[in-house]
Every structure is written in structure tokens, then in C-alpha cells.
Specification:
Elements lengths: L1 H10 L3 E4 L5 E7 L2 E8 L5 H10 L8 E5 L4 H6 L6 E4 L4 H22 L1
Parallel strand pairs: 3-4, 4-5
Antiparallel strand pairs: 1-2, 2-3
């Protein structure tokens, strides 16, 4: 999946960085606008990760796309997170990449308008 995201980043002239814990990918065009793909592979860590996201210094949850299996929207809503999106990792790779591409396209439209 990382190779595919790399290809999408090249397509849109974006940079990306795999964060040290390898559980998130930061995509950016410039230093002011970043989009984070946060990967949660274990359902046991969903609540913990949501808590960590809420406790970070950033208040811009709308720049986060959550990638996890069997998305439990009630946990997201009860955590009061307004994420940019959520992608179910149970889908096949082609569907995942189509969704990631759509999110990147929309994010680029939004960030280009705000510049």
C-alpha cells in the first residue's frame, strides 16, 4: 500500500513521510498543509488511538483519514472527532486505492483554494 501511495504522491507532485511508528503516513504539498493517514490494525487500539488523536496539540482533525478494519463509527462519534475520512481496510486493494485517490483529490482542491 505504501508503494501505491507513493505513486499517487508522485502523480499529484506531493511529498510523503512515513512517521517513525510506521502507523501513520503524512502527505504534504507545503509546510502549512498536511494530510495524515493513520493506520490502526488492531481493534483493541482504536479507543487508545482516538484518545491520542484528541490529546495532540493539533485541533485540525479534518486533516486525518483513519484506516482500520471494521470501522466502528459509534466510537468515532462518541470521541467527538471530525475526521476528514475513514477507510475500511477490509476492502480489496483496488477499492482502498480508489478511496485514497478520491480523498487526495478532494484535499488538494480544498488546500489549493485556501492558498
Amino acid at each position: 500500500m505504501i508503494i501505491k501511495i507513493n505513486n499517487l504522491c508522485k502523480k499529484y507532485s506531493l511529498k510523503y513521510q512515513i512517521l517513525p511508528n510506521k502507523k501513520a503516513i503524512k502527505v504534504f504539498k507545503d509546510t502549512n498543509n498536511s494530510l495524515y493517514f493513520i493506520i490502526i490494525l488492531s481493534q483493541n487500539t482504536v479507543d487508545t488511538k482516538i484518545g491520542r488523536i484528541k490529546n495532540t496539540n493539533t485541533t485540525d482533525y479534518k486533516s486525518i483519514i483513519l484506516l482500520t478494519k471494521k470501522i466502528k463509527y459509534e466510537k468515532l462519534f462518541s470521541g467527538h472527532l471530525e475526521l476528514y475520512g475513514a477507510i475500511d481496510l477490509a476492502e480489496d486493494l483496488d477499492v482502498l486505492m480508489k478511496e485514497i485517490n478520491e480523498y487526495l483529490t478532494e484535499w488538494l482542491k480544498f488546500t489549493t483554494k485556501s492558498l
